[in-house]
Amino acid sequence: MRAAALIRARSELQRVVSGWKRRRLTTGLVPTMGALHAGHAALIRRAARECDRVIVSVFVNPLQFSPGEDLRRYPRTLGADRRLAAAAGADAVYAPSMAGMYPEDFKTHVEVEGLSDLYCGKYRPGHFRGVATVVLKLFNHARPDRAYFGEKDYQQVLIIEAMVRDLDVPVRVVRVPTVRARDGLALSSRNAYLSAAERAAAPALRAALLEGRRAARAGAKAAAVVDAVRRALRGTGLKLQYAARCGSRLLAAAHLAGTRLIDNLRVN
Ligand code: PAF
């Protein structure tokens, strides 16, 4: 199977993108940390439908991992990523080096205040600062017309939208619905950590969110909605970290052995 062209250097990416711009071709960017799956393929296909050229960035961003998280064991599968990217319609994979992204004297960060400390941010201090920083850098490197993000990471999308608005970044952020396995589990690169037994248990998170949504639609107060989610997870092996209403969404994170899972559903 054909692999998407690999670009390592920012200067090379900028040369390619400038050529596209001169020809008035639009560019879509799909930022990822690699270990691509069908959820990423949906982002790439959407980008390929809406843009003339598509770049998938692959960079495992150390700034968004807290000490003790899975930075070292995060799956790195660049060869397979290039093939999946090409099959879904990408023109190039941009995989910058660590030094290319964060030279030794790097000292500037982007912080979207407030929202970054809530929900997932409460349990992953510094995570969204790392996400916002790397995404702004990727926008500056690729200068895309549109950038595509999955709704599975709902809080991440809100933070990137706020950053783009507040810092006048000339890119249109496109939200793409979560892709799920047939049993309801939201696709995630971290699902690769699950043993067979854990994988069988993992769809309980979505099932619990459905219970929470039922309670919310029946008029339950916030605490009762969280209780409904927690009750539904009893005996499943998943430990709820939090569940919370965020605008029209019900968000949750849970631990399943050593793996942290997140998911969300539209309530209204
Ligand atoms: O969603 C992800 O994979 C990452 O958080 C992102 C947006 C690529 C930034 O590293």
Question: How would the blueprint of this fold be written?
Answer:
Layout: E1 5-7, H1 10-22, E2 27-32, H2 38-50, E3 53-58, H3 78-88, E4 92-94, H4 98-101, H5 120-123, H6 127-142, E5 146-150, H7 154-166, E6 172-176, H8 196-201, H9 204-217, H10 222-233, E7 238-246, E8 249-256, E9 259-266
Parallel strand pairs: 1-4, 2-3, 2-5, 3-4, 5-6
Antiparallel strand pairs: 7-8, 8-9
Bound molecules: pantoate (PAF).
Describe the structure.
This protein is of the alpha/beta class and 268 residues long. It contains ten helices and nine strands. Strands 1-4-3-2-5-6 form a six-stranded parallel beta sheet, sandwiched between helices. It has a three-stranded antiparallel beta sheet with strand order 7-8-9, with helices on one face. A hairpin with a 2-residue loop joins β8 and β9. The mean pLDDT is 98. The structure holds pantoate. The site of pantoate has 10 residues, from β2 and α6.
